[in-house]
Amino acid sequence: MIRYAKAHACGNDFLVVEASQVAPEKQREEAIRLCARNSGVGADGVEYLEWTGERRGQIRLFNADGSIAEISGNGTRCVAAWMAYQKYAGAGETITLETDAGSRECRLVAVEGSRFEFVSAMGVPAVGKHLIRLADGTAIEGAVVSTGNPHFVIFVEDGDFRVHTRDWRAVGEEICHHTEFPDQTNVEFVRIVSPEEIEIRIFERGVGPTTSSGTGTCATAAATISLRGGHSSLRVVAPGGAQRVDWAGEGQAMLLTGPAELISVGEAFGC
């Protein structure tokens, strides 16, 4: 049996599994099986956790398709919520997690039942303009952004997030698998509401359309602040809810404020 905790951050859901329960060579296979919506527990990914201290851990994220992601901002926060619950952590305390994209500190600012609010240090983003051509020759202007993992950000004006009359999901899928991105990329679509607020849609590498993304929230905010004059404290609204990004600009670390809620704990049969 594999014990797990299930949590979500703005609808972006993850299973937290202590790594010692699954042999390294079996972790990919188990992630695919556990994440399956109809035949498994169901999740966007599995975070394998190894405790390294009282409020410290090391995690590795497998997406629902079995690919490894360097980091998930929402997934990291979900793990932090589970650890905070386990250790009875209160507001002001910090959970530190080592990811494949480096160390991330999650400072707990509020607890209400099974819901935990964190301010997470998300590292220093890198933003650059980029033009990509789709298979039909359509040129898409956007930005490549690194938040520890890769993103391609597209600004739109359409309320349905269409790009050149095409559905954003179709465009996201094509760009995600574009030959310019041999390791694939996350793709976000941004509509600027005001200098202090943006709306986004997300096509996540290894998952597909998602309700939210922590690193995607950071990537879209970084592109908006850097390239479109967005406010340094930006409200980012995804279908699953809103998060806040604070960023002073190039060379500075970014902070992400958002929730994580524990859903359930349980056991699943192993392979």
Characterization of this structure:
It is a single chain. The chain is an alpha+beta fold and 271 residues long. It folds into two domains: 2-122 and 259-268, Roll (Diaminopimelate Epimerase, Chain A, domain 1), CATH 3.10.310.10; 126-252, Roll (Diaminopimelate Epimerase, Chain A, domain 1), CATH 3.10.310. The protein has four helices and 17 strands. The chain is globular. The N and C termini lie close together (9 Å).
CATH overall fold name of the largest domain: Diaminopimelate Epimerase, Chain A, domain 1
Q: CATH homologous superfamily of the largest domain - what is it?
A: Diaminopimelate Epimerase, Chain A, domain 1
Largest sheet: 8 strands, mixed, barrel
Please tell me what the overall shape is. Answer: globular
Number of domains: 2
Structural class: alpha+beta
CATH arch. level architecture of the largest domain:
Roll
- Name the strands of the widest sheet in spatial order: 1-2-3-4-6-7-8-17
Spatial extent as radius of gyration: 18 Å
- The strand count comes to 17
Report the top-level CATH class of the largest domain: Alpha Beta
Along the chain, the helix and strand elements come as: EEHEEEHEEEEEEHEEEHEEE
